[in-house]
């Protein structure tokens, strides 16, 4: 299926040469996106192709991203960089649904990807493009998950990787991943936005291939998250898809995927997107709820959910269009609400990093405010694995209530208090 790279701003739409590896339009500065001609692919043919590949033993067909390759930019299959990403589970969480006040809640868990987060979906496409272009060094600014994913896929491709992280603000588990995969990790700036601004200036000077979500290839991979959700549901859309909001690449990607599936006739109805941010890092929520036309960045975003501690999200315009398309909604939840949602999920055997739990906390808050109905069928996207931030878990542990027992009697008393 032929694809074209264009400016995503509706008022511009200029076509861009894919070989230039640009991330923004030289005319208006807007971010770029790939577009496809839906008339070339009958929907029944697509669904049959997607289904048949699930039984295939081919490497690309084992990927939950490349299995949907008709809806991705063209690549030589020999140059595709894959670690078998995608194909993540989507269990129901009935007790958490009751806790949140909705009829059904399914959990699309991206923490089971190769490096433990949804970033792998976009990185397989992004690093494949780096190989296609003959680039040798990939680079990103990161709150942690992007760096781990980029480092792994760069190592797989035989490329070098450079990571800019905000000083002292990234989970040690995520930094350990990037280091283990051989990336050069540099502490720069006080927060993600400062690190990202520094990288954007350095990338063209040092010929670094930028893989943050302003790269249009990232969103192409991330939109397959939506395709998997719908395929696992028999191509029946839920009422609401809830997801955490940081740099807003996921919301933008899912919005793009919804537009494409609608044009292909593969969408039975339009689900509402719910973007959930942390109270201390919620510029998009503030803009959306106020009806403002422009986003006002936060200079010093703050939340313990470090993966969404972003004050100036690069994808906010595309995310806003996604909410407009889907009659969407936003929420801002406290760190305490995030912690409660994380514990609730864990009580049902579902672990995740703090930012992921924000999505479920947001569902509960939106239900309480009446923006989500009690009869709603909801899918919440968990973006990262439970072991991405073990310091958070240990610091928040509730079982350490006193000195360690030193006798059998003390053990019994401690157990009795805990079980009460």
**CATH third-level topology of the domain at 94-116 and 218-395:** Rossmann fold
Give the integer mean of the pLDDT values: 94
Q: Stretches where pLDDT falls below 50 for ≥5 residues?
A: none
Amino- and carboxy-terminal Cα gap? 61 Å
Q: What's the CATH architecture name of the domain at 94-116 and 218-395? A: 3-Layer(aba) Sandwich
Q: What is the ordering of alpha helices and beta strands?
A: EEEHHHEHEHEHEHEHHEHEHHEHHEHH
CATH class category label of the domain at 94-116 and 218-395? Alpha Beta
Structural class call reads alpha/beta
- Taking all Cα atoms into account, the compactness measure Rg is 21 Å
Largest sheet, if any? Answer: 5 strands, parallel
Query: What is the number of E strands?
Result: 12
Name the strands of the widest sheet in spatial order.
4-12-9-10-11
Provide the helix percentage. Answer: 40-55%
Q: What proportion strand? A: 5-15%
Choose one word for the global shape.
Answer: globular
Number of helices: 16
């Amino acid at each position: 299926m032929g694809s074209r790279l264009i400016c995503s701003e509706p008022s511009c739409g200029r076509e861009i040469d894919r070989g230039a590896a640009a991330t923004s339009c030289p005319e208006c500065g807007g971010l770029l996106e790939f577009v496809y001609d839906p008339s070339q692919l009958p929907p029944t043919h697509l669904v049959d192709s997607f289904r048949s590949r699930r039984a295939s033993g081919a490497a690309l067909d084992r990927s939950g991203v490349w299995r949907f390759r008709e809806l991705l930019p063209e690549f030589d299959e020999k140059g595709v960089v894959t670690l078998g990403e995608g194909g993540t589970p989507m269990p129901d969480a009935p007790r958490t649904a009751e806790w949140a006040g909705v009829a059904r809640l399914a959990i699309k868990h991206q923490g089971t990807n190769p490096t433990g987060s949804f970033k792998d979906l976009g990185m397989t496409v992004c690093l494949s493009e780096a190989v296609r272009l003959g680039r040798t060094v990939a680079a990103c600014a990161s709150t942690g998950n992007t760096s781990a994913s980029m480092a792994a896929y760069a190592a797989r491709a035989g490329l070098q990787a450079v990571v800019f992280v905000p000083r002292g603000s990234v989970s040690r588990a995520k930094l350990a991943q990037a280091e283990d995969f051989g990336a050069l990790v540099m502490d720069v700036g006080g927060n993600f936005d400062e690190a990202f601004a520094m990288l954007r200036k350095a990338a063209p000077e040092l010929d670094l291939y930028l893989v943050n979500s302003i790269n249009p290839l990232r969103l192409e991979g991330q939109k397959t998250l939506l395709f998997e959700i719908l395929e696992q549901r028999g191509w029946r859309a839920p009422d609401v898809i809830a997801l955490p909001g940081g740099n807003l690449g996921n919301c933008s990607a899912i919005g793009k995927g919804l537009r494409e599936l609608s044009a292909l006739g593969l969408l039975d109805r339009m689900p509402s997107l719910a973007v959930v941010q942390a109270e201390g890092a919620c510029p998009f929520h503030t803009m959306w709820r106020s009806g403002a036309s422009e986003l006002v960045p936060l200079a010093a975003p703050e939340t313990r959910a470090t993966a969404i501690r972003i004050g100036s999200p690069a994808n906010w315009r595309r995310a806003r269009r996604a909410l407009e398309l889907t009659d969407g909604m936003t929420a801002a939840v406290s760190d305490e609400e995030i912690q409660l949602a994380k514990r609730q999920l864990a009580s049902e055997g579902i672990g995740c990093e703090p930012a992921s739990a924000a999505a479920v906390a947001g569902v509960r808050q939106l239900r309480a405010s009446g923006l989500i109905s009690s009869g709603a069928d909801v899918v919440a996207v968990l973006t990262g694995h439970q072991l991405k931030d073990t310091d958070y878990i240990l610091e928040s542990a509730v079982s350490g209530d006193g000195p360690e027992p030193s006798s059998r009697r003390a053990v019994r008393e401690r157990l009795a208090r805990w079980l009460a």
